[in-house]
Amino acid sequence: MPATPAVPNGKRPTLADVASRAGVSTALVSIVMRGAKGAGQATRERVLQAAREIGYRPDARARLLRSHRSHLLGVQFGLQHPFHSDLVEGIYAAAEPAGYQIALSAVAAGRGEQRAVETLLDDRCEALILLGPQAPAARLAELAGQLPVVSVARRLRPSVPGLEVVRTADDEGAGQAVDHLVALGHRDIAHIDGGRAPGAADRRRGYRTAMNRHGLGELIRILPGGLTEEEGAEAARTLSATRPRPTAVLAFNDRCATGVLDLFLRSGVAVPGGISVVGFDDSHLARLAHIDLTTVGQDVARLAGLAVGRAVARLEGAEIPAGEQVITPRLVVRGTSAPPP
Amino acid sequence: MPATPAVPNGKRPTLADVASRAGVSTALVSIVMRGAKGAGQATRERVLQAAREIGYRPDARARLLRSHRSHLLGVQFGLQHPFHSDLVEGIYAAAEPAGYQIALSAVAAGRGEQRAVETLLDDRCEALILLGPQAPAARLAELAGQLPVVSVARRLRPSVPGLEVVRTADDEGAGQAVDHLVALGHRDIAHIDGGRAPGAADRRRGYRTAMNRHGLGELIRILPGGLTEEEGAEAARTLSATRPRPTAVLAFNDRCATGVLDLFLRSGVAVPGGISVVGFDDSHLARLAHIDLTTVGQDVARLAGLAVGRAVARLEGAEIPAGEQVITPRLVVRGTSAPPP
DNA sequence: TCAAGGAACTAGAACGTTCTAGAACTCCGT
DNA sequence: ACGGAGTTCTAGAACGTTCTAGTTCCTTGA
Question: What residue ranges define each of the domains in chain A, with the CATH number in brackets?
């Protein structure tokens, strides 16, 4: 029975409780609990034993209050965004071995970025990792003046001092998708974009550039889309009524592509027989056997690792050169792309 | 320019900084910042002005350390679970007006429930809200001995003292779905279940009971499924090869149902023309125009509100009667159910 | 005029930890 | 026996708040 409520009085056990039970000073208990050096082997075990017996757990808040460093990274993420979930998962994994804790703050309906960031700041995070932040650049710059800030998946023009950027080369990804389709023989390739979403502008540009590079400038067609299935389906509806209908579509992301797939399926357009569809992100969604989506893969683990790495580097005072890390995406060819009919 | 770094020295401004600038004691500044009574109108404004000028923000951790109450609710959720995201959103919304803060701790690959709960405890949360916890009942009971614990969407047999349960009447929901299908004229109705997932057993039971009630006991057919699109699609594959094929399917949840829909679509089985499909949850997914899924709606806002309510009630020492709150689901009829062919 | 009562304000002790000094003890070589 | 040089341990001051118990100063009513 490892965790009986323990201490007679109802309160949570403290250092002092452990100390008195083990017959040592609180300072020594502190040393033992942290695994710091300065305690003898025998006492160390006696203290640990006492701590175990009364179910002592160090109070993270008191600990942070006293120590100058908090070793806390604040992460702002969008609750409804599967891609963010993947990133958070990677961030947890990267932070642990680096000796940092994560504080999560969600952006949701009725809880804007401003509020999300404020709570992180109040919790004394040492650095901020913002996933796809939509806040104005000026606001981000202001934040970056106060503490290290890493923006993930959002491009920011002038390298504001103190502001790190980790992102995928969205333009290159879109280009890879176009190259792949062209190699298959496609010429009439449309793009359903992501509007004002982070990364959308770059993907648009990458699409345009690649089309031009292949001498297909006249066939460039960009439809307003978005990051949800619904918006993808809506754009696909428009597309399926157009003549001539393009033979391939590059969607803004996987969710959007799923909507596109679904609508085509329903309106009797075969994929990839009648039209090819390519997504972006390589989220869990794309890998599902029955979806089997050709998509531009973002290296989530790498993005997360770099984000944590940059934040930690800044905190540990390493002189780091560039303010931007751009990861090359790689195309994952699956079942939704084939030569044109 | 509201938030210039301020204080000459690099540190974050504190109560004492504000106090010396406004020419009052720290205690008074504390009073003003909390909006407590005991300060004159004029000084109040002078203090606030000073605080604004140096960009002071109270340190949440120091605050919690001192005050006996932390007003913090710890929420454990599954990162990859859209339904949990919805719940978290509702919990944020409910906690704010009740004067409580939320600390999030995610369950993800490489970060189990044990670890998630530990960090919440270390952060001195006053109560725990666990979304669909998978931990053994004994472990939950042990936790409940230490602080108020609310389990959402997981049924627990014996009412462990200190353990609150808030859940949807899963059996009733499954029953409603069957009733609806039977009313449309269906008899051969299959169920793709959720295996060991929280709520799955109840939904299975509800399905069985309703089938028996309608005298369709012999047609009961339960296929092993799961909570993802993939598992749904897999089960649907099996189903579409069976003869006679059922005329309707009740899926474990909306994600599972989406997989089912998708596979039927691909194998040329019309929905609802050839077969009806009903989901469970009424998540965002189900509402998408192109999916338009008939589903059993869980009242997320209500579940979240009750979870927070129970936790708060327990904390404020209200004597609350039952240990379980069961919400009645309600069927949302959309486009994937129709009379059998 | 005076006491009573309240409003405005403050000193200083908490909260549970870590950190800085320094004390006490051991272990050595001389 | 003596002076380092480690070790192991401890007292007590932080950290940034809130809380308790005052103190001071104003009203006000008799």
Answer: 15-58 (1.10.260.40), 72-168+300-327 (3.40.50.2300), 170-298 (3.40.50.2300)
